[in-house]
Amino acid sequence: MSVWDELVGQERAAEQLRRAAAQEVPSHAWLFTGPPGSGRSTAARALAAALLCERPDPWERGCGRCKSCRTAMAGTHADLTYFATENLSIKIEEARELVVKAQDRPAVGRWRIMIVEDADRMPERTSNVLLKAIEEPPPHTIWLLCAPSPVDVLVTIRSRCRPVGLKVPAAEEVARLLVRREGIEEETALHAARLAQGHVGIARRLAVFPEARSRREEVVRLPLGLAGISSAVAAADRLITTAEAESEADAEERNERERVELMVTLGAEESAKLPPHLRAALRRLEEDQKRRARRIQVDTLDRFLIDLSTFYRDVLTLQLRTGSPLINQHLQRELEDYALNSTAERTLEQIDTINLTRRRIATANPRLAFEAMTASLILRH
To answer: What is the pLDDT of residue 133?
Structure first.
């Protein structure tokens, strides 16, 4: 199976990348864009694997079987640097480290490849650090940037990158992938793919983990239980508490392991009093861990909001009688009752409220933002 088979529903993009990999000197910078779940990072890895592939025939690059293809897709190839921030934004120090790394000559392959996921999380100062490296890259270095859309990246950077636009794959395509790769039953895979709206990673989680399905069901049913302010505040509290618990569960074991590893690296004893320069290193680690926890919480809440918006999307579909299939088909009766007790104008207002909350949670107090949202979502009679 070639690396291109990993690009679910992206035949046009796969052909573009296959042609690029066959060139003797491909473009030095690429920008992969598409909505969440479209497979931006997967496409970037596939191109990286094809560029590093050991096949002598250019049109066979990306075979998926040689060592270079396998290690590149796994993110462990010696000539591949894969960067994904765990913070809300990419720090300028991290960008400088990438620029320095990009100067290295390839160790085993033809190219030094730099993949930057979430390039949209670069503030302007950070983007300017990367800009110089993309404007004048070493002849052996190729940059692969990923972002939701071209406008999310500094215009001076995107103007120097070759664009690759991706789309959300159809639910049927995602379901076939889950059946083939995970051995999931076809009906379960299709149901999960529809609920995930084509997002491969989320579809897999919904298909494999019952608790993920239960959590999503609670979020989607939230509008049905909003009878007043008290129930709205309680609903917001449940979602925030769940997101905090996820963040803490991820951090608990990981943070302690990182602390122990840092102490060993610094040659410091756990019980001994640390000198100032070692205390500073420990403080930086703790600050990074707090930022990571914040990002996990924000990403979890954002996922809740995306799931919640599918309820109102289905309600609007019924109100406008578009005939489009419902995402939450298993709630059809409840959705029909809700649609009869509201108007399309009101539903659009509720969707706008959710979108506004998605923007607010990155900077505002998430609990206050969610309480304001759930209060605004109460159905007015």
So the answer is: 87
C-alpha–C-alpha distance, residues 49 and 62, integer Å: 6
Model pLDDT, residue 18: 94
Backbone angles phi, psi at 328, to 5 degrees: -100, 65
SS3 readout for 329-354: HHHHHHHHHHHHCCCHHHHHHHHHHH
Using CA atoms, how far apart are residues 42 and 177, in angstroms rounded to an integer?
14
Write the DSSP string, 97-132: HHHHHTTSPPSSSS-EEEEETTGGG--HHHHHHHHH
Delimit the domains of the chain by residue range.
3-165, 171-208, 225-376
Q: What is the DSSP string of 161-226?
A: SEEEE--PPPHHHHHHHHHHHH---HHHHHHHHHHTTT-HHHHHHHHH-HHHHHHHHHHHTGGGG-
pLDDT-based confidence at residue 357 (cuts at 50, 70, 90): very high
CATH topology of domain 3-165: Rossmann fold (3.40.50)
